[in-house]
Amino acid sequence: MGARxxxxxxxxxxxxxxxxxxxxxxxxxxxxxxxEFRLADLVRPIFIFAVLGMGLNIVTGFTGLLNLGVAAFMAxxxxxxxxATCDIYPFQLGFWTALPLTIAVGAAAGIILGLPTIRLxxxxxxxxxxxxxxxxxxxxxxxxxxxxGTQGINPLPSPTLFGYVFKPETPLPWYYLFLALLAVVVxxxxxxxxxRIGRTWASIREDELxxxxxxxxxxxxxxxxxxxxxxxxxxxxxxxxxxxxSSGEPGNYDFQISIIALCIVIVGGxxxxxxxxxxxxxxxxxxxxxxxxxxxxxAQHGWTSSDNVFTSPSNWKYMMFGLALILMMxxxxxxxxxxxxxxxxxxxxxxxxxxxxxxxTT
Amino acid sequence: MGSEDAEDQREGGRELMTDSxxxxxxVIIGLSNGMIIALIALGYxxxxxIVELINFAHGDLFMLGAFLALTIAGALGLDAVSxxxxxxxxxxxxxxxxxxxxxxxNWCVDRLAYRPLRNAPRLAPLVSAIGVSFVFLNIGLxxxxxxxxxxxxxxxxxxxxxxxxxxxxENLLGESDITLTISQVLVFVITVPLMIGLSVxxxxxxxxxxxxxxxxxxxxxxxxxxxxxxVIGATFIIGGALGGVAxxxxxxxxxxxxxxxxxRVGLDAFTAAVLGGIGNLPGAVLGGLVIGMIxxxxxxxxxxxxxxxxxxxxxxxxxxxRPAGLLGTHAQEKV
Lengths: 362, 335
What we know:
The complex is a heterodimer of chains A (362) and B (335).
Chain A: H1 8-13, H2 15-30, H3 39-62, H4 70-85, H5 95-117, H6 122-142, H7 144-147, E1 160-161, E2 164-165, H8 171-193, H9 196-206, H10 208-213, H11 218-244, H12 255-268, H13 273-300, H14 317-331, H15 340-346
Antiparallel strand pairs in A: 1-2
Helix pairs in contact in A: 2-8, 2-13, 3-8, 3-11, 3-12, 3-13, 4-5, 4-6, 4-11, 5-11, 9-11, 12-13
Chain B: H1 2-11, H2 19-51, H3 58-75, H4 91-114, H5 123-143, E1 161-162, H6 182-204, H7 206-216, H8 218-223, H9 228-254, E2 256-257, H10 261-276, H11 281-301, H12 307-321
Antiparallel strand pairs in B: 1-2
Helix pairs in contact in B: 2-6, 2-9, 2-10, 2-11, 3-4, 3-5, 3-9, 3-10, 4-9, 6-7, 6-9, 7-9, 10-11, 10-12, 11-12
């Protein structure tokens, strides 16, 4: 796509700002829609999951480390936020102090997981992160003295800004709050990508051995990617807690969340900031909005019955997710809005040359 | 898996067991579960050894095998074995059908989803495998909603299904405090010969030699006239078939199956494969046994709710000191 001349490359390079701008205009459409389809209300989870996707994108998209446990960092964020704000604990911080705390705790968790495991090769790291996800989930469930077990911590106070209180009944201010925070994350991510550390990450993704030979301290760079990625995921968790007014229960942060985050990054385009935004829109829009609405709609009109599992669209959810991933990998592995660099890497082996993929020579 | 058994023991009014008897009992439970985990882990490790792909769908393939077994039980109208009988012959068609089914499906998946990505970067087939696993998960959910009596009609499709006790749960040791059931013996009777057979196949047959060659270097293997795609296909069939056998053994031993069990059990099996050193066949068996034992001992001596945490804590600890697993060797990277 980038090869086309004219204005397109410049537009494409700023696609993330265009997408965010479109999102800012979206509530205007609400004026035309019936009240039960208010987009401002429905779209908020997309922003939160876009932040989660940004976090995973730094680890998997930029640095090429597969992390299958981002749900754990999201859970850590949500619980940190809940413990910091809820009035049953002594801290009772406000939104604007609790959120940086959440980010810091997320970064610390990333470093704690990363320090012992960052030396592991790709697939070993993937399983360890996956195990970490399970461990965090189980620990939150078991430490019910602190975490209230499966009840979750609630209710959480509403955020305030200069004296204005964000009430759960009014979705619009929330919408712009989340959008603004997402814009900050996007700005940060873009700057990271184009900075020295961003180039370091790309070099590690492309060829770690070569990067190390050029004098790059790959352990340090990978650990930094882990920490920053985890802090974004943790932030997404904190926002999720604020959005729900509850920490949610540990079971909400299961492997499925990690996979949804991975789908967001893959479908959008690994290493592509605008891709993550579009991926979050497609995946969450499909999962949380379209499918839920469709199921409710069909049930309302009596076109589904509880006796027949085949008629309910939500019973086909995994199938559609799965097929989307398989077809994506087969036909457009670089994603919907690919990063040009990643696209070039992915098509490096299109020539009909068998690649050495065995044992000692990778 | 072991937790239910452990609770049964306590509820059975057997508090009078001595410490060493309790330990022995947990060892029996741990080894039985460990052997099942090992059998599934072999499927992961074989595929990884040859194409360096974490076949995420393997656990869910195992789940489908168990659903096929339950469907057979329903179609044949099988019921729990009568008192005195050791097992029902109805398990024979299961042990034939499930491996054939799982092996065949695994081959198809390789052909359709993984083979086109053979030359793509490592992440592509891995994501594809996650996709396949989701498709299987969905098939399992829908399968559980079939209008058959064995699937507990009236309950939701997602509810766990009771698997009829086709193998006697009678204690072979008679009046002894320690329980050793026929289903536990069956686990060993099925898994041990399979593992021996597999190592004979890999070590001494033409196919096994070809598999080892492809695992070492696919390009060189192709130059030597080995049909690499066929060898890989055969690996998927064998790995899938082992998973199919494991699914029947699991169902007969645990007497309950559910559509998400592929993730739970698959995660254990995959952890076992990594723990032993992925790509290494004896390592997978060792890893399976270690995990089975950790589970049984944590259930007994710490607390059942910490068992999963314990398994992964041990995994991380082992990987810190032996980054390539217990029996794995770290290949030096060459340019």
